[in-house]
Hints:
alpha+beta; Heat Shock Protein 90; 14 helices; disordered N terminus
Amino acid sequence: MYQNKIPITFRKRMILYNLLIIVCIAFLISIYTYSFYKKDVIASEAANSASRLHLVASRIEIACVEIINIVQNCAGRKSLFLTSALSGYNSRSSEESSIYAANVLRDLCAISGYNEYIHKITVYEKDSLFIQAGTSYGNSYDAEYIMAAPWFNELLNKNMKEYALTLRDNPFPLNAKTIPQLLPLIRPLQYSKKESPQDAWVCLTLSPKLFQDTMELLSQDRSVLILTSDFSPVSSMNMESFPLADIQVFLNAHPETTGHSKVQLSDTDCILVWERLSVSGLILCEVLPLKSISMNPGVIRATLGLVFISSIVVGFTLSFLFTRYLARPIMRLIRHMDVISSGDFSKNPDIESDDELGIIGRQINEMSAHVSALMENRIRDEQEKMNLEIKMLQAQINPHFLYNTLDSIKWIATMQHNAGIVKVVSALSSLLKNMAKGFNEKVTVRQELDFLDNYVAIEKIRYIELFDVEISVDDPALYDARIIKLTLQPLVENSIFSGIEPSGKPGLIKIHIFSEGQTLYISIHDNGIGISEENIARLLTDTSRVSRNYMSGIGLPNVDRRLKLVYGPEYGIKIDSEPGVYTCVTVSLPLEY
Length: 593
């Protein structure tokens, strides 16, 4: 039942996963298509807007150039207004000459084609010339009004090549309420002999109506704004819902001559298109709300539907064929793995083929052919290795120790004729009895210390009280703690033969037993010759250095290895020494009772 369900479930899952991937891909393609289409539509609309703005900008720039030419002609051509009467060589009256000059000024404005937008043009030379023209009525005090305006000196002292238009307050009281702001241009009369430019100048004030009328060339549903170079609004159309301050900040941060960029105005995503005029300094910009840009949803829906249907049909067909081809060898592998799990490691040629799954099947056959023997050999080898290591570490009894002991008994019997013989023989008998019981068992600290006492008694007689041993136990309960037998004897033996005996003077061996947490510590401290720092580093790693003069023949590295085998790598021996002063060997092992 289980095996019959697996291929169906696998096939369904594969088809589902493939379809899911294909749907995701189709969705991403659709998103990309829609984004590309939207980006293209926005770019196209921005380009159209830039073309419209450029058309309007060209007309405005032409108008500004004509207006500037009028000012330049009035400021630079003295012969434009002079008649023989004005120069003193004609019999015409001064009044006739003034009328003639005013007519010339009006004709000059009319020839430009922008006469209706010239609010007033005034040519003034102190005590000699004062004429006016334009759509607004003149006044004999107009020159005084102009010179009293706060912007008069600023504009008069501008560079002769600077003609950037700025929006200023209307200086003429008669129509200041109906036309509150104008765009003035002022230039000093270059041919005048007056010492101060304020005594001879020409002033042309341009009406903002010029820009409003020019914007009528555009569709009336467009949102267009015209600003001066200092971002003052001159004219606008359908800009009520867009904050002027945000547009001013944006344009101030983008000094490019032309461009378009996505901005957010009044929580509405928009495209802002702008163009700066080189002569007048005016800035034309159009705001295109993205929601007002037509995306042709019918085309998008048709494209998305076609992509989805095509992807699902192709994906389902490929998924069906792929899962059908893949499921069969996988099922053969699964059945063979069930056989292996039951304990049958026989070879199955049906799962081998030339494709990737066949390679897997071949490897499974090879592994199943060796796995049983490998497991048995591994277990046997590890067990044998552990037993051999422990036996080799623990069961090393050096016969030379017995020879030395017997030699001690002979000398005692010969020289002393006292009970020392009984003591040595008793100690030796006790040592041999304990060793004969084996080395794998664990004993209490008290038993290990008793065994150590017998060994120390023999060595003291041999070396004629060359050393003393002091034992301190922090907690009496530690006497019942369990350790591996024959742990302390090799360490004390090392202190005697490697530390105290080479020093040639009496020594003291201190054994301190204490615990910290769940760890038992035993330190063996001697005041022998010590160990150099470089020797400490390799002492615990060189297991071949075993002295044949020792009782057990077990060196410090073998004791350390023995403890790690039994208790784990975090336990063992630590050595601290200072040459010529002391050596301290500390044993750490789990605290067991």
